[in-house]
Write a structure and sequence with these properties.
The chain has 166 residues and is α+β, with helices and mostly antiparallel strands. It has three helices and seven strands; from the N terminus they run ααββαβββββ.
Length: 166
């Protein structure tokens, strides 16, 4: 691998990492236009394993906009990113796959202790946490790397406090 190819590969890796981070930030900040711009025109998302829908990026963004209203506090942490960049005989290609684990602590709106006297310090504490793995398929576009597919593989979820089952 030449220095030029090595540099191009590193630049691709950094660009792809930025897309994955932007994905989490868009969901956490309710930036649905930004969310949609991360996808290719035919991009799709599948949240069925987490109780959601599968559809075009626009359809899923609309569903997320409605659903995330239930969670005024949320913070995606996307970690353990494993990137497989297409190899064209020693040169980086235009496709990439990323497997990345996530931890998603959230605060469910309307929890029983939200209005409790003296609960000011705890009302933003997470009471709903989920974890799993994202599978991203990305394509290089004229505007940079974009998500073609993302599938959520929820592995677990936990309810805390009065939301937890007895």
């Amino acid at each position: 691998m030449t220095q030029r190819v090595a540099l191009a590969t590193v630049m691709d890796q950094l660009s792809i990492d930025a897309v994955i981070t932007s994905y989490a930030v868009a969901v956490d900040d309710s930036a649905w236009q930004d969310y949609g711009e991360l996808f290719t025109p035919d991009g799709r998302a599948d949240y069925r394993s987490a109780g959601g829908i599968e559809g075009s990026a626009a359809e899923v963004a609309q569903w997320l906009a409605e659903t995330m209203r239930l969670f005024p506090v949320r913070q995606h942490l996307i970690v353990n990113r494993r990137l497989d960049l297409q190899d064209l005989g020693g040169y980086p290609g235009d496709r990439a796959d990323v497997q990345a684990d996530y931890l998603n602590p959230m605060r469910l709106r309307g929890a029983p202790d939200d209005d409790a006297v003296g609960a000011a310090d705890s009302t933003t504490a997470p009471n709903f946490v989920s974890g799993g793995r994202y599978a991203f398929g990305l394509l290089r576009a004229e505007t940079g790397w974009r998500i073609r597919t993302v599938t959520v593989h929820e592995k677990w979820r936990s309810l805390a406090g009065e939301l937890a089952p007895d």
